[in-house]
Amino acid sequence: MTTNLVDELVEADDDVKQGEIVIGTSGFSYGDWVGRVYPDDIKKEKMLSFYANDLRFCVVELNDTYNTLPVTGWAESLLNDITGGGFAFVVKAHKSMTRNIYDRDGAYIRDEQAVDVFMAGVKPLVDANALKCIIAQFPVKFVRSDGAFAYIKWLAESVAPVPLVVEFRSVSWMAQSAFDKLREVGVGYCSVDGPDLPEFPTFTPAGTARISCVRLCGRNKNWFDVRGGARYDYNYSNFELKQLTEPIRRLAETSDEVIVLFNNYTNGASVKNVKSFKELLQLG
Q: Which positions ≥6 away from 99 have C-beta within 8 Å?
């Protein structure tokens, strides 16, 4: 479901050149995909190759980097699993860059060392031109303020030339002025589709930079009552996917590239939804 704010952010124009839309999943190495998405006898180290070469998906979001800083050899192993060209990654920023950023007095901690380690870890992906962007997923307590904007600007400068895309879980960011400020500093926005609950920001696609992201997390109404994969146990219906096609197309009119990531990974629902959504958008 979208809000009226979308109409303010994206004005439909048949003459506007549409940016590229690429679709993949958030993560690829889930145990419950074996037998559903992957062959019964697949080894974990073969999953990414199957994802790229057999499923023919061209992008994936890597979430492990949120809890663990990437180490030497991590990115190289990923690249070795990809035999064809054109495959790319989206990497989630480490929690030291988005969650553990508050001093005792409430000031923001700019952990330059952690950012340096993170960027060194993803450098092979950058060198191979295989890193689309870094998603910085900020928690609910990261509310809109001048200090928060200053922190985002610093983080974007710290990870450059890799594009930074921000995702918010606080409804305070759902304002035209916030998107305008992101556009001023060239930071992309990741809109999230989730359950229709007061605590969850409404799905509001907005193009604020060259790359925009959309993460589709499912609409499980039990989101705040369950944990882990149970939150993402949701399969979008064909009707719901059709409702999402127009907002995505309109978002592509404001960005060079829109990266759509299905995060409803439980039981492989995200893979099914990627295939269906690509057909609806008439993407190869």
A: 138, 139
